[in-house]
Amino acid sequence: xxxxxxxxxxxxxxxxxxxxxxxxxxxxxxxxxxxxxxxxxxxxxxxxxxxxxxxxxxxxxxxxxxxxxxxxxxxxxxxxxxxxxxxxxxxxxxxxxxxxxxxxxxxxxxxxxxxxxxxxxxxxxxxxxxxxxxxxxxxxxxxxxxxxxxxxxxxxxxxxxxxxxxxxxxxxxxxxxxxxxxxxxxxxxxxxxxxxxxxxxxxxxxxxxxxxxxxxxxxxxxxxxxxxxxxxxxxxxxxxxxxxxxxxxxxxxxxxxxxxxxxxxxxxxxxxxxxxxxxxxxxxxxxxxxxxxxxxxxxxxxxxxxxxxxxxxxxxxxxxxxxxxx
Amino acid sequence: xxxxxxxxxxxxxxxxxxxxxxxxxxxxxxxxxxxxxxxxxxxxxxxxxxxxxxxxxxxxxxxxxxxxxxxxxxxxxxxxxxxxxxxxxxxxxxxxxxxxxxxxxxxxxxxxxxxxxxxxxxxxxxxxxxxxxxxxxxxxxxxxxxxxxxxxxxxxxxxxxxxxxxxxxxxxxxxxxxxxxxxxxxxxxxxxxxxxxxxxxxxxxxxxxxxxxxxxxxxxxxxxxxxxxxxxxxxxxxxxxxxxxxxxxxxxxxxxxxxxxxxxxxxxxxxxxxxxxxxxxxxxxxxxxxxxxxxxxxxxxxxxxxxxxxxxxxxxxxxxxxxxxxxxxxxxxxxxxxxxxxxxxxxxxxxxxxx
Lengths: 326, 355
Ligand SMILES: Cc1ncc(C[n+]2csc(CCOP(=O)(O)OP(=O)(O)O)c2C)c(N)n1
Ligand SMILES: [Mg+2]
Hints:
A: Rossmann fold; 12 helices; 19% strand; B: Rossmann fold; two-stranded antiparallel sheet; binds thiamine diphosphate; binds magnesium ion
């Protein structure tokens, strides 16, 4: 079987579920014949037709609002926002309606939609194309937020998101869309949404990350291993609801935690995880929890964007800080 | 230069303010009892409204937006819709919701701060009341997209105020409904005010109906104080929509004879002469005049109707007041189909606090 990239895994999951379930309908800008600007819907227009792979007028509030109405009718719209930087007009609809429809009708109407958006920096894109604002969505009761970091997890988690009966924000780290290839059997098997993935096991420190930063985090773990420091590496994947139990179990074992994310530091998801670690395993901690994150600045344009993203060196420095405590 | 396109907006009215017919009755109105039914719904709505305001004033309910003066708009809509159509309200549509089968006590529940007030049993596909202005137009377009996708022969009606027609969601919804020829009817309740901002400060457009032109769909202005014309215009638009002939925008011209809500004091900004004039054109009086002139109505029937409506509303108020609170756990139970673990813990904590 051929190995595929993460963006191909997204396409594969969409195709699988569209084949199985006629209620699954795709909408977005340029997702039809063009296959999306990142080609995430490549070939689906030809295969499933214009009725199910719908190029919408260019209006993001509209895309979200339509999806809510369609979902309330029992369809399962999977909508693509071309870039996360352009999802903000839809926040009103997502926060005020998608997240609340079930609750405000006491379960009479529901909103089984998925909002996909490529996000994050590192591809030399223009202004507004590189931010990571997953924390905005994680803060909203009623939404779920999922971020894959490998082809296999993109496939399994996207299937889970489409099948989930509640609205899911599915953020795709575009820097790693084509970074690695993997065998991803097209078996329709979903991965669980409320679960972290432990990618490496070690006993000295727990590295916690998600999305594109997962890759620098894994590289850091490899380099640390050469120095005799062995890390548990956790891909959070489900930003909300958060599987804190897996993270706590690891930190209880290692006594040290370093959280790595591309998003700005203040109010980021890392702060939430650090706080939960304090609540659940403060007495197991041998050192203060470290965060290695983007800065609280505007995302720099492409010339300096690398300086913003957590590098392998910064991650190792973060780990070393925790090691200073015996 | 040459002219490449030309547009005009029609105005529909059947019953003038004096109760005289200015055009022949539409077919539905010639059926026995049809106009009396419209009339009775309007009276029930007015009685309900007065009661709701009273409940708010006496601390038994939260903020409430009255329909006073606009009953013709809402009752016309409710009467034209079929059970299989889908209604997407804003927040001033008590009348339509009652006609759809929501109960009076449910509406009181909603405005009294109980989520069960939106759990409509008789119209399970209808959307709940929508507070964020204009967002509902897009839900209606989405529902219409689903209806079209499934090749069903039914349609969606969505309402909003004159103020809501300034917001992007409204234009985005009109535009996509036109482009995709969706089975949806957009209705603007032009009651001349958006809280304290007059219609004239909302847009330089001569009519709101003409906003349809930019979306390539029919737009019509209707006398919203004429329940007969309203009913007919909505019915025609719905028939076109159900037949796959696309969307329509209806601007219903009426007047808000009340405060914006119970939290507002319209005497601060509404000119007195304007409201006195508007009272001469209100919808209930004119239909009653017509019915009396045609010997379908008299004082005795009026008194009986008033009494029936009072009794019906009073019984609903009692039911509302007697409804037990939801348990505190209910604030968690409809967040997701399956409650995430972290929320299970918060739910337990809230329950314990409640003990
Ligand atoms: C997006 C948004 N902005 C502001 C408000 C506050 N608000 C509630 S009603 C209203 C006026 C609406 O006027 P209109 O659309 O004409 O409807 P009407 O109340 O007159 O029926 C405003 C500003 C809101 N609910 N939603
Ligand atoms: Mg108004």
